[in-house]
Please model this.
Amino acid sequence: MKTYNVKSSDIERQWHLVDASGKTLGRLASEVAIILLGKNKPTFSNNINVGDYVVVVNASKVKVTGKKDQQKVYYRHSNYPGGLRSVSYADMFKVNPERVVTFAVRGMIPRNRLGRQIMSRLKVYAGQDHPHAAQMVKSDKGE
Model:
């Protein structure tokens, strides 16, 4: 029996809507990362991007457990001396809750060219409204 290798022309992408209201940040991120990577499909291959599109709504209603809302800190560095910057979870969540969800998912995606392609299929919105309603209808026909 021959091994099946998926081709990029054989990939059919669907759109998934994930409601983040009341969900824990890490559990939500792992659920989204599995769909983005395509690990929920029988045709999964880690050298080809077989994942689907994911739209996350209500990012402003996501929860964290323990004292993470007071203690978690996001770091970035400008690659210049003294260029370390830090922002607390509470401040980032107040200003841009979409970025909190995006960073959580990005931590579960490979750090290479394929990972950047995968992350381009993630759409995160703070509220209930999103401009991808037309794509959602198309994915419902295939199921």
User: Anything to note?
Assistant: The domain at 13-64+96-132 is CATH 3.90.1180.10 (Ribosomal Protein L13p; Chain: A;). The chain has six helices and five strands.
